[in-house]
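Reopening this one. Same input as before:
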Amino acid sequence: MGILMIGHPVIVSLIYTNAEAGAVAYYGLPDATALHRTTPWLGSALGMVAAGVATVLTYPIQTVRIRQQAGLPLCAVRDAFAGLGPKLIHKLVGGFIFFLVKESANSELHYLLDGSFGADTGS
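Same output, byte for byte:
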């Protein structure tokens, strides 16, 4: 059961990476850094969607694991989604904030490392 618990971050990463690549191609940009510089909100939206999808897909697995650890009998499929609403809101907001901070920091870091910081301005 433990190996299944890595599913959430793997799913988030796969969805986010593929959506990001699709957005780069759609906007005709050279790379993801250019995408996040031109549309800083997009990374947050993509991250929020990725976190939401991953949560819906992995929530029943987490419910079964918790019930097993507590020594409770396994539940019906409909009960495996009990409590999903608050968890989904938590993950959507968390995904939005996480990817906003991550991509903003990543864009700034690339900006600094590309030689723009401290470069001779000709004066």
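So the earlier flakiness isn't reproducible anymore. For the record, The CA atoms of residues 11 and 32 lie 19 Å apart.
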